[in-house]
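Aim 2, interim progress: modelling of the adenosine monophosphate-bound target.
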Amino acid sequence: MTLTLHDTGSGQKRPFVPLNPERVTMYVCGPTVYNYAHIGNARPPVVFDVLARLLRRDYTLVYARNITDVDDKINQASIDTGRSIGDITNEYTEAYLADMGALGVRPPDIAPRATQHIAEMIEMIEQLLASGHAYAAEGHVLFSVERFDDYGALSKRDVREMIAGARVEVAPYKQHPADFVLWKPSNDELPGWDSPWGRGRPGWHLECSAMIKKHLGTTVDIHGGGQDLVFPHHENERAQSTCAHGGQTFANYWLHNGFLNMGNTKMSKSLGNVRLVRELLQEADGEAIRLALLSAHYRQPLDWTGETLPEATRKLDRLYGAMQDVPVDPQAGIDSDARDAFIATLHNDLNTPQALAELFQIARRLNASADAADRARLVNTMRECGALIGFLERDPQDWFAAQRAQGGDADEIDAMVARRVAAKKAKDFATADRIRDELTARGIEVRDAADGSTWKRIEAGAS
Ligand code: AMP
Ligand code: ZN
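Predicted structure of the complex, ligand included:
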């Protein structure tokens, strides 16, 4: 069984051949820590967590996911709130790690922070200046895109088109409008470090290039992130690193996840259509949120609706329901054909919807079987397969207990909310109020709007 991955660079699915099977390297661009992660931000860490789990089956993996803790958006947040930059980045780094943990994302092997790699960034800029790929101007250092013939190859863009379409920032100190910043000056109010070009701070793209070089080497096997990072971020990382390393390949496989959308629009802070992971964790179990994120293929868009989480919860009810009451018996072994079929779906460019379908297939066989040994074997198979994508790692009893503690299963709550809407329509307010009280007692908050009622789970202990 060979793992094939879709590589943005070649635009094709390619068999995965690592440079060194004893040390496979993967880098995923992490969050800029100035606010809480929304559910779109959680898609890359969850997707690449699945890939990391899969790679660890066959190889020794070194997986790095950075924390961007120097960025103009963070500076702006500090100005807006009056809080120190360190306060902001510490708070949101912790929140991010807690949120991802709740979604079953295992910590990467290395989580480098940009502010701890300024010396490496300065060193890389010096290399790029020495090799003639960069130039200093007015306290800035810029990368010259005209001096890298392959610029635009990853994102399939033509530099000339970029200027015509004005997709790049024009500035007087640039030799070419598409040139991008490696270093920029900081005034006294902004964070800055001493450098040969004066006090300043690095450009965002350079941060990843320098951290990759330090922790993973000049060439990584896999570089990943969301689709929006292909240009300019990854194009620029690639340009800097390739030129600083004498033309060596920077990443052998580029993987990009599609967007999580709300009604056909990308979920994004700037559009104000975000649902925070924290909020969603009050409405549903982290495992259900994870399942929702993996229910579409990672390269496809994923539409997030009011039905997404109740549906994911029902799916886990069914999987855990099948496993319930089957005594644990490690001696029973596993159904290796079913396990291999499951892994084959993941080896096909991480086809998680198909993998979930295989898991349901095993659950159906389990439900239909009356043979104790067969049932024990199928449960073991479900556990082994589930663990590969980060599911079914709890005791089924714990899953159902957690669901009860969260106020019952989603179907039942949907039905209660529907009965309440019907009672209100019939002007039977006593019944409507009684149902609302019952829901409140279960920790469910109902919100009425012109177009219907919605509900959410209230965090335990919240008043
Ligand atoms: P940011 O903090 O905005 O740099 O985003 C962190 C990560 O989340 C990046 O890998 C983005 O590509 C990814 N991302 C942001 N919004 C979405 C979305 N709506 N769907 C999928 N990925 C996203
Ligand atoms: Zn990056």
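The chain is about 45% helix and 15% strand. The longest strand covers residues 220-226.
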